[in-house]
Amino acid sequence: MTNTINVRRADTTTVVRVAGAVIGETRDALILSEGDLAEVMYFPVADVAMAFLDASETVTTCPAKGAASHYTIQTKSGALEDAAWSYENPTEAAMRIKGHIAFDTSRVTVENV
């Protein structure tokens, strides 16, 4: 059984920081909720400094969203493997997050400013 996907626009400016450095800032973030899981903030790829992210070989699959491609974030102190992901060809239910990227908030800071 798959959870219901809900996507809504965030009402604030949102940033993502890695080791204190801002690598993304947007007024167009999307918040995805899926059943009882924690909400996830998705940034438009155009609003993220993709030069700091390298595509990894990791691909995970979610029945509700599809296949996620993962990214390693390069920092001065080392690499954060698979700390970001995107759904390049999401399911119909998750189509609004196409062209967006999410971050592992246990390893980076995502905050409203």
Description of the molecule:
- The protein is mainly β and 113 residues long.
- It is 0% helix and 56% strand.
- It contains no helices and ten strands.
- The chain has strands spanning 5-9, 14-18, 21-26, 30-34, 40-44, 53-62, 66-75, 78-86, 100-103, 109-112.
- A seven-stranded antiparallel beta sheet has the order 1-4-5-9-8-7-6, with no helix packed on it. A three-stranded antiparallel beta sheet has the order 3-2-10, with no helix packed on it.
- 29% of the residues are buried.
List the helices and strands and how they pair.
Blueprint lengths: L4 E5 L4 E5 L2 E6 L3 E5 L5 E5 L8 E10 L3 E10 L2 E9 L13 E4 L5 E4 L1
Antiparallel strand pairs: 1-4, 2-3, 2-10, 4-5, 5-9, 6-7, 7-8, 8-9
The helix fraction, in percent, is under 10%
Overall body shape: globular
- How does the major sheet shape up? 7 strands, antiparallel
Structural class: mainly beta
What Rg is obtained from the alpha carbons, in whole angstroms? 13 Å
Average pLDDT across residues? 95
Distance between the termini: 36 Å
Beta strands, count: 10
- Main sheet: which strands, in order across? 1-4-5-9-8-7-6
- The low-confidence runs, each spanning 5 or more residues with pLDDT under 50, are none
Q: How much of the sequence is in beta strands?
A: over 45%
SSE arrangement, N to C = EEEEEEEEEE
Treating each run of at least 4 consecutive H or I residues as one helix, how many helices?
0
